[in-house]
Design goal:
Length: 257
């Protein structure tokens, strides 16, 4: 498996409140995270940093050779610990009140093929291959609830004035539910984790075209996604983690944090 990440402040925001992480931990598990902080002056950048640092710390302490269900529980527990950490700090300092973050994280076993995605908010995970692109996560947003309830059409959601209103985030409440999903990456498949700075600027077809281009190495695919998002307006921070399952199924260079 090979992995790269990119993060950019965009063309409008003054501060990058996104965080990305991708690495092979010392215990051999592969971990990738995107977190998109919220709160502005209420320190969304601190919330996203705390989320990543807490999840990395918790999962780095795992023993080797855990079973699949144990990995799932470990990822969920790490995200819940991050929620406790952020909520506690926010409750202790008025300037951090109600800070929070989205999170989408993928944890893979030593084979680098099977893993789990943990998710809260509207940062997304996509599976991409030559046959198409599949969104693996469901946005925890007001407009997605309106779509599910039939009150607006999916096309309206893209331009709805409240499209960025979250109904679930990490760190804003003492208790939170984590969406968990198993994932298997086959040969030639990609996993994309991204903040909404990408998906608000590019639709699924555009993302698929950039990722699947056989003429580009993985780094160039990530650069193309970032560049096209900036060209489309770049009105938010843009963060991308892109993983590719190698044909040989062995670890390749390119993992970095």
């Amino acid at each position: 498996m090979k992995a790269v990440h990119r993060s950019d402040v965009g063309r409008v925001r003054a501060v990058n409140e996104d965080r990305a992480y991708v690495a092979v931990l010392d215990n051999g598990y592969c971990l990738a995270i995107v977190a998109d902080g919220m709160g502005g002056h209420q320190a969304g950048d601190i919330a996203s940093r705390l989320a990543v640092e807490t999840v990395v710390s918790e999962l780095s302490a795992l023993p080797q050779d855990l079973q699949a269900n144990q990995l799932e529980r470990a990822l969920e527990a790490a995200i819940l610990r991050a929620n406790q950490t952020i909520f506690h700090i926010a409750s202790q300092d008025e300037k951090y009140y109600h800070m929070g973050t989205t999170i989408v994280a993928a944890l893979f076993d030593h084979s680098q093929c099977n893993g789990y995605i943990g998710h809260i908010g509207d940062s997304r995970a996509y599976s991409v291959d030559r046959q198409g692109i599949l969104q693996l996560t469901e946005d925890h947003t007001l407009v997605n609830e309106l779509v599910k309830n039939g009150q607006i059409e999916p096309e309206e959601a893209m331009r709805h004035p409240r499209r960025n209103v979250l109904i679930r985030a990490l760190g804003t409440d003492a208790q939170v539910e984590v969406d968990m999903k198993p994932i298997t990456l086959g040969s030639g498949q990609y996993l994309l984790l991204c903040s909404d700075g990408l998906t608000n600027m590019m639709n699924s077809d555009q993302i698929w075209s950039a990722v699947i281009d056989p003429s580009l190495p993985l780094e160039a695919k990530a650069d193309r996604l970032l560049g096209q998002s900036l060209d489309a307006g770049g009105d938010d921070n843009i963060t991308i983690v892109l993983l590719e399952q190698a044909e040989s199924g062995t670890m390749e260079e390119g993992w970095n944090s």
